[in-house]
Each structure stands twice: as structure tokens, then as C-alpha cells.
What does this fold into?
Amino acid sequence: MGAELLVHQLKLGDMDNFVYLIGDPESREAAVIDPAWDVEAILAAAARDSLRITSLLVTHYHHDHTNGIRPLMEKVRARVYVNRGDTPHLKLSKTDTVVVGARHELRLGERVIRFLDTPGHTAGSQCFLAEGNLFTGDTLFIGACGRVDFGECSAKQMLHSLREVLLPLPDDLLVWPGHDYDDVPCARFGEVKRRNRALSITDEEVFRRYVTGARWPNEE
It folds into this structure.
């Protein structure tokens, strides 16, 4: 297949968000994961690699991960991929939106992006798996996981998502989180499994107490 998937990690905004631009080096098709904050920076990153943005992928609906959707849609012709659980929270045109669920797949040229249903932080939180890269939004950070103590969060769903959906994935995956909350911006999943206690807890009430007791700067 040639060169590896292109991955650009952009730290944008005042909430330590990571926005990702990923692209197929052959077709130059690209997707933006969680478009937010600085649309011009995203477009500039795409221009540097001659990438054409065709898809916007949403890990979850929170404003700090989605506030760039509309401004970006004014600049590029792309469709927005949102999990069915979060669709009611994003007032987007039906013609621009693709409502997805578990096991959905998207092609960027010859590259395949798999969608993983990981509710917990929100009802429609999802992660994306693409050629050895796992983009986790606020479901999983390097040393913690997203909050479960407000809105429609669910500790039960989060625990299931972490243990039943993510934990079985291979150790050599490179984990790209939704915020810069740790001492490294990304890490191999094997290392995340070793250092992240949220992945080792099996009891729901213990998990709830542990996650609720943790805090991350500006985290939504």
C-alpha cells in the first residue's frame, strides 16, 4: 500500500484539545477528527501536505471538540460522521451528516477507518481505528479516562467501553487522546494499559468513585 497513513496532531484552543488531521498519502484524501478552535490552522496543515479534506469525524458532541465544524464546512466540501447517540446534540444539516453506529467503516482512498462504539462520556462517544492508530477522544487518555459525573454520562457504559471494546485491542496500537493531559501526547496501547488504572478496575462502583475523584484541567 506504500507510505503509512499521515497523522497530524494539532494542539488547539484553550482547553488543551488535540485535533487530528489524517490522510491517505496516495489519494491525498483526508479526515479531520474533532474539528475545533482554529480552522485556519487545520487548513494550513492540510495545505502543507496537499491534502483534500473530505470527512469530519466526531468522537463526541461536546463544544470543545465540535466548535469548528460549521466554520470548516464553509471552507471545504465534507461530510460529518456522528454517532447516533450524539446526533440530537449537533444541529447539523441532514445532507451533511452521516449517522453511524458500531462497526461503521470509512475509506480514505485505500485506507480504512473503523468506528468503535464507546459510550460513557456521552451516549454517542466513539473511537476511530486506522492502520495501527487509535483515536480515543475523551473516552481514554494516556493516564485516565473521561468524566462520568455530569449530564448523560454513564460510569457503567464507560467501564464496558474501556474493558470490553478497547482493552482487547492490540498493545502496539498508537493511542491518540482528545486532550493533552499527560506527560506524553501519545503512547503505545501496551504502555497505556500498564499506567492507566482506569483500565484495570472491574467493579462499577469502585470505577465510579475512582473516575469521579479524578480531575483534569478544563475537561468537559
